[in-house]
Amino acid sequence: MAPVSYHEANGLVAGYVCAACWGPLSAHPVDDGVDIHCGECGAATPGFVSMRYTEKRKSESLAQYYLARKALREAVPWFFPAKKVPDQLLKDLGY
Ligand SMILES: [Zn+2]
C-alpha cells in the first residue's frame, strides 16, 4: 500500500484493523510518509476494516455460537454430561 500521512496513520492504527485477519495495525515511518503494516500479515495486508465493524461481527458470531450450543445441547444431551462437584469426582476416583 502507498504510504500515508502521519495524521492518517494515527487514525488508521487507532480505529482500524487488518481486513484479512482482523489483527492490529502498526505504523512504520518511511521517506515519504508512514507505511501501515498488519502484525500478522505484514505489508501484505489487503486493506483495513473498522474496529467497530469487527466488534459488531464478533458480537453477532458469539450470539450465533450460544444459540448453536443451546440447540446442540438439546439435540444431543449425552454429548454434554452433567458437571460433577469435586467431592463426587474424588469419590469416583476412589478417594
Ligand atoms: Zn493481517
Give a description of the structure:
The protein is of the alpha+beta class. It has one domain. 44% of the residues lie in helices and 19% in strands. It is built from three helices and four strands. The strands form two sheets. The chain has a two-stranded antiparallel ribbon. Strands 2-3 form a two-stranded antiparallel ribbon. A hairpin with a 2-residue loop joins strand 2 and strand 3. The chain starts with 5 loop residues before the first helix and ends with a helix. The relative contact order is 0.13. The model has no long low-confidence stretch (mean pLDDT 93). The site of zinc ion has 8 residues, from loops.
Classification by helices and strands: alpha+beta
Bound molecules: zinc ion
N- to C-terminal distance? 64 Å
Q: Name the strands of the widest sheet in spatial order.
A: 1-4
Total helices: the number is 3
The level of helicity is 40-55%
Secondary structure tally: strands:
4
Rounded Rg = 23 Å
Main beta sheet strand tally, sense and closure: 2 strands, antiparallel
Arithmetic mean of pLDDT: 93
Quick structural overview:
The protein is of the alpha+beta class and 95 residues long. It contains three helices and four strands.
Ordered list of secondary-structure elements with their pairings:
Layout: H1 6-15, E1 16-18, E2 25-30, E3 33-38, E4 48-50, H2 51-75, H3 86-92
Antiparallel strand pairs: 1-4, 2-3
The protein binds zinc ion.
Zinc ion is lined by residues 18, 20-21, 23, 38, 40-41, 45.
What tags apply to this protein structure?
95 residues, alpha+beta, two-stranded antiparallel sheet, 4 strands, 44% helix, elongated, binds zinc ion
